[in-house]
Amino acid sequence: MDAAVGKVGRLVLQRCLDELLASEPGVVGALVCTSDGFEVAAALPAGYSPATLAAMASSQLALSDALCREASLGGCRNLVVDAEVGKVLVMEIPGSERRLLLGCIGGTRHTLGQVLYACRASAEDIGRRLVEARGS
Q1: What is the pTM of this model?
Q2: Domain map of the chain by residue range?
Q3: How far is CA 11 from the centre of its chain?
Q4: pLDDT at 136
Q5: In this predicted model, which residue has the larger pLDDT, 5 or 72?
Q6: Which of the four pLDDT bands, split at 50, 70 and 90, describes residue 33?
Q7: What does the alpha-carbon distance between residue 95 and residue 18 come to, in Å, rounded to a whole number?
Q8: β partners of residue 31
Q9: What would the 3-class secondary structure string for 25-85 be?
């Protein structure tokens, strides 16, 4: 989906995802998708479908957002799934021109807090870099 961020933005996103995986051993895969479920960039282990994960991540965040609003909690900031053999986190990327989401897959050897912290910091970094890329 080059239309979501442009070619330069897509390169920025791919670099950010690669850096996240290289710097945080608790994150085994990551992707950026649009809020309507289209993959923009991905760094996933073999066998994972970026298109499927992007569609499910956006759908689950939309459901979580509706649940939070129904419970009078405001909008959903993060979606966290703590599964038997890992974690899945989905969050908005702040500052993105079009609403973009960061999805991360974490393993079992690291705490949820470690993975959440790394993914949140990465989402903020991605947002800053996209703003800078638009200004260039």
Answers
A1: 0.91
A2: 2-135
A3: 16
A4: 59
A5: 72
A6: very high
A7: 20
A8: 42, 103
A9: CCEEEEEEEECCCCEEEEECCCCCCHHHHHHHHHHHHHHHHHHHHHCCCCCCCEEEEEECC
- How far is Cα 30 from Cα 2, in angstroms, rounded to an integer? 18
Q: Give the position of tokens 């950010």.
A: 16
Query: What confidence tens digit (pLDDT) does each residue in 34-45 have?
Result: 999 999 999 999
- What does the pLDDT look like over 54-92, one tens digit per residue? 999 999 999 999 999 999 999 898 999 999 999 999 999
Q: How far is the C-alpha of 49 from the C-alpha of 105, rounded, in Å?
A: 13
Buried b (16+ CB within 10 A) or exposed e, 84-110: eebbbbbbbbebbeeebbbbbbbeeeb
Contact indicator for 39, 101 with CB cutoff of 8 Å: no
Structure tokens belonging to residue 125: 């970094």
CATH number for the domain formed by residue range(s) 2-135: 3.30.450.30
Distance CA 130, CA 82 (A): 29
Tell me if 65 sits within 8 A of 76, measured CB to CB: yes
Asked if 114 and 25 count as a contact pair (C-beta separation under 8 A), the reply is no
- Residue holding tokens 């419970």? 71
